[in-house]
Amino acid sequence: MGEPFRVGSARCSTDEQDVGIQTEQLLALAVPRERIFIDKGFSGTTRKNRAGLDNALAAVTSAAAAVTGRQVVLTTTKFDRFARNMAEAGEILTGLREREVLFGLGNSVYDWNDPFGKLFLQTLAMVAEANLNHLRTREGMAKARAKGRLKGKQPKLPLAARKTIHRRYHDPDDDASLADLADEYSVGRSTIHRIVSGTTPRA
């Protein structure tokens, strides 16, 4: 059997990740440059608008029908560069198996007929889901920060309430204690303590 017919899939999100690194890694894995398909600036939870991945899948589908005597392999550098959730991963990998296209992850190529390979791919999908949840949170925070929507931890009580608490606690004619104020405003004593220990709250 001849050398595998390799097609590469790469992706970078809006988190300023350099797709050039993935490209160099795919070239080192013997994927020809003309068969490397890239999605740039893609972020989200589904494969919508991922023309690069769609083109890579079309390429391996055509090769599986036309190439004889060679294995056809869809290659990616990391699982989370390939799929965005378990449902998507399962759909794509099932399609590859039906077309007898193997899946290459880094230096490894997984054979659908090998029980260990099948189990390992299922495990990869589960691990990728956990990594992607973290990535989505980080990307969402970056977007919110860029739009000025993420300004750090917000106080538990509005400014007017904090001013009232500060005034009442320091008013000799008001015998409200830390516990009384905490119960009244449904917050912890530590929150009241921070308010009354500082200067008068300001906007």
UniProtKB/TrEMBL annotation:
<dbReference type="InterPro" id="IPR036162">
    <property type="entry name" value="Resolvase-like_N_sf"/>
</dbReference>
<keyword id="KW-0238">DNA-binding</keyword>
<dbReference type="GO" id="GO:0000150">
    <property type="term" value="F:DNA strand exchange activity"/>
</dbReference>
<dbReference type="InterPro" id="IPR050639">
    <property type="entry name" value="SSR_resolvase"/>
</dbReference>
<dbReference type="Pfam" id="PF00239">
    <property type="entry name" value="Resolvase"/>
</dbReference>
<dbReference type="GO" id="GO:0003677">
    <property type="term" value="F:DNA binding"/>
</dbReference>
<keyword id="KW-0233">DNA recombination</keyword>
<feature type="domain" description="Resolvase/invertase-type recombinase catalytic">
    <location>
        <begin position="5"/>
        <end position="150"/>
    </location>
</feature>
<dbReference type="InterPro" id="IPR006119">
    <property type="entry name" value="Resolv_N"/>
</dbReference>
<protein>
    <submittedName>
        <fullName>Site-specific recombinase</fullName>
    </submittedName>
</protein>
